[in-house]
């Protein structure tokens, strides 16, 4: 199922998903386009628990973390005022990460089939923007961060990159509009290409 008006930005840590999501929502609001910005993990209970684990403030088995992401996603989509309600009202929803992050990251330790099964029931976005960056380049960008989350090291990112490649291959004929873009370039140039893909092409 494709969820109309739903736009997702994906990529490895350091790819710039948050930067591009903010640029996109800012321009939408400037131009009077009815849009909202959201992210995963969310601020729902499961999302807050995920953040404590990512920040190494709590521990959990990899499978538990995969279940938590799926639970958080379920709330994100189906809770009152969630993504389904927002898109259904005609609002464009820009989301910083979605189920493709789970496939890329959680499948490293849990296996592809396990993570795919947890996420198969969720709708796909109308538009998927993949910010493609080499793990070594993402690592350089992460070096300025004072604290690293549990997945933010290069060896893991290399394996997550393989998960993203598999996800893009498997969903290539899903009906989503997919843009894979070189994320090592100037952020404003990337933003312009994303904007044109969504609103011009």
Verbal overview:
This protein has nine helices and five strands. The chain is α/β, with parallel strands linked by helices and 201 residues long. The radius of gyration is 16 Å and the shape is globular.
Architecture blueprint of SSEs:
Layout: E1 2-11, H1 17-30, E2 35-39, H2 45-54, H3 62-78, H4 83-88, E3 92-96, H5 99-110, H6 112-119, E4 124-132, H7 135-142, H8 154-170, E5 177-182, H9 187-199
Parallel strand pairs: 1-3, 1-4, 2-3, 4-5
Helix pairs in contact: 1-9, 2-3, 3-5, 5-6, 5-8, 7-8
- End-to-end CA span: 22 Å
Q: CATH homologous superfamily - what is it?
A: P-loop containing nucleotide triphosphate hydrolases
CATH class (first level) name: Alpha Beta
Total number of strands: 5
pLDDT average, as an integer? 94
Question: Which structural class matches the secondary elements?
Answer: alpha/beta
Low-pLDDT regions: none
Encode the helix/strand succession as letters. Answer: EHEHHHEHHEHHEH
Number of helices: 9
Under CATH, the topology can be stated as: Rossmann fold
Q: What's the short story on this structure?
A:
The protein is α/β, with parallel strands linked by helices and 201 residues long.
Features:
alpha/beta; Rossmann fold; 9 helices; 17% strand; globular
